[in-house]
C-alpha cells in the first residue's frame, strides 16, 4: 500500500486593504499574512543518489524512521530515504535493506542474525533482491556452515536454503495465505570468513503489475536476460535439496523462449536424469555441457523447474544461461 507524505509550507503573501470613508479614502499599510500550502506526494519508490533503492518521504519522516536521505524526489519536496535493518530488527517499510552489521564491511561473528518482516495489509508477495550475498560456500552442495533461511511463507511453499555467492539473485515469497511470523535468518558458523549481505525488501500487493505468478520463486519479465543456479559465482557448485520454479512473464507479441547455456553441469552424464535436472516444456535436461541450447515452447505459461537431490558428491557446478523471448 502506498501512503502519502504531507508537507506544510508557509508562504508570505502581501495583502492590500483599502478602507473607504464616506467622503474620503486612505490606503492602510500593507500587511503580511501567512498562507499555508499543503503539498502531498506518494511514498513511492525512488533511486537514491547512491544508486540504492529508496522510498520518497519528507525529510522529517525519513529522520523519524531512522533512514538516510540521499537525493530528492517529488519535485524537490521529498527526500529519497534509504532504510536499513540488521540483527534483531524489524522491516515494515517498503524498500528497506536487510544487511550484516557494519555493511559494507564484512562480518565474521558466529551465530544467528535475523529480522522480522511485518508487511502492510494487502501484501501478497515479498520480493527479496540480493544486492550482495557472500556467505561460506557449501560442502558437496550442502549448506552445512552458513545458511540463509526464509520462514513464514505460504504453507507448502518450498523456499530453498542458500549459502555461498548469490549476489544479483532474487526470490519471490508468497505470503497471502500465512499467519506465521515472517523472518529472514542468517546463521554463521564459527569458521573464520568475511561474510557480507545486503537484501532489498519489496512488498507487492494483489493488484501490483510486478506480481509474480504464484509459487514462482524467480520471475523474469524482460524479453532477454540471464538466469543461473544459486551459488553460481566464483566457485560455482549446485546446492542440494533444491526444488523451485523459474517463471517468465507474458509479453505481447512474443511466444517461445530460446535458452543458451554457457554451462550446464547437473545430474547424470548420458544417463537418465533421475533427481537432478531442469524440466523445460515437459522434458528433463541434465548432463555436463559447456554449451547447450534448447527452447521452451509457449503452449502455456513458461517455467523451468529446478531440481536437485541431497547428494552432490560430484560437486556439479549447476547452470548459467541467457534467454531470449522469440516473436510469435
Explained architecture:
The chain is mostly beta strands and 328 residues long. The protein is 2% helix and 49% strand. It is built from 1 helix and 27 strands. The strands form 7 sheets. It has a 5-stranded mixed beta sheet, with no helix packed on it. Strands 18-20-26-22-23 form a 5-stranded mixed beta sheet, with no helix packed on it. Strands 19, 21, 24, 25 and 27 form a 5-stranded antiparallel beta sheet that branches. The longest helix has 6 residues, at 59-64. It is globular, with a radius of gyration of 26 Å. The two termini are 36 Å apart. Residues 8-28 have low confidence and may be disordered.
Could you say which structural class the secondary elements and strand pairing correspond to? mainly beta
Percent helix, as a range, is under 10%
Count of helical regions: 1
Question: How far apart are the termini?
Answer: 36 Å
Series of secondary-structure elements, N-terminal to C-terminal: EEEEEEHEEEEEEEEEEEEEEEEEEEEE
User: What gross morphology would you assign?
Assistant: globular
Instruction: For the largest sheet, list the strands in their spatial order.
Output: 9-11-17-13-15
Beta-strand segment tally: 27
- Uncertain ranges: 8-28
Strand proportion, as a percent range, falls in over 45%
The average pLDDT score comes to 89
Amino acid at each position: 500500500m502506498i501512503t502519502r507524505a504531507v508537507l506544510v509550507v508557509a508562504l508570505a503573501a502581501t495583502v492590500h486593504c483599502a478602507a473607504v470613508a464616506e467622503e474620503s479614502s486612505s490606503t492602510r499599510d500593507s500587511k503580511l499574512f501567512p498562507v499555508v500550502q499543503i503539498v502531498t506526494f506518494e511514498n513511492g519508490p525512488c533511486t537514491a543518489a547512491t544508486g540504492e533503492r529508496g522510498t520518497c518521504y519528507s525529510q522529517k519522516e525519513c529522520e523519524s524512521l531512522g533512514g538516510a536521505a540521499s537525493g530528492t524526489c517529488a519535485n524537490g519536496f521529498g527526500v529519497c530515504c534509504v532504510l536499513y535493518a540488521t540483527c534483531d530488527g524489524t522491516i515494515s517499510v517498503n524498500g528497506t535493506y536487510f544487511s550484516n552489521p557494519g555493511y559494507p564491511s564484512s562480518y565474521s561473528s558466529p551465530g544467528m542474525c535475523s529480522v522480522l518482516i511485518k508487511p502492510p495489509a494487502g501484501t501478497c508477495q515479498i520480493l527479496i533482491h540480493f544486492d550482495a550475498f557472500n556467505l561460506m560456500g557449501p560442502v558437496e552442495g550442502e549448506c552445512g556452515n552458513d545458511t540463509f533461511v526464509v520462514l513464514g511463507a505460504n504453507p507448502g511453499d518450498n523456499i530453498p536454503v542458500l549459502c555461498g555467492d548469490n549476489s544479483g539473485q532474487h526470490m519471490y515469497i508468497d505470503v497471502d495465505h500465512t499467519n506465521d511470523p515472517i523472518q529472514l535468518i542468517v546463521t554463521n558458523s564459527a569458521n573464520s570468513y568475511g561474510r557480507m549481505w545486503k537484501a532489498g525488501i519489496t512488498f507487492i500487493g494483489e493488484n501490483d503489475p510486478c506480481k509474480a505468478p504464484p509459487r514462482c520463486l524467480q520471475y523474469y519479465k524482460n524479453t532477454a536476460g540471464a538466469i543461473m543456479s544459486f551459488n553460481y559465482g566464483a566457485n560455482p557448485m549446485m546446492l542440494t535439496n533444491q526444488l523451485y520454479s523459474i517463471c517468465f512473464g507474458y509479453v505481447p507479441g512474443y511466444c517461445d523462449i530460446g535458452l543458451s547455456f554457457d554451462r550446464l553441469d547437473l545430474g547424470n552424464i548420458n544417463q537418465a536424469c533421475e533427481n537432478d535436472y531442469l524440466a523445460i516444456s515437459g522434458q528433463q535436461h541434465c548432463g555436463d555441457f559447456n554449451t547447450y541450447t534448447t527452447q521452451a515452447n509457449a503452449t502455456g505459461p513458461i517455467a523451468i523447474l529446478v531440481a536437485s537431490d541431497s547428494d552432490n558428491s560430484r560437486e556439479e557446478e549447476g547452470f548459467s544461461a541467457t534467454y531470449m523471448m522469440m516473436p510469435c
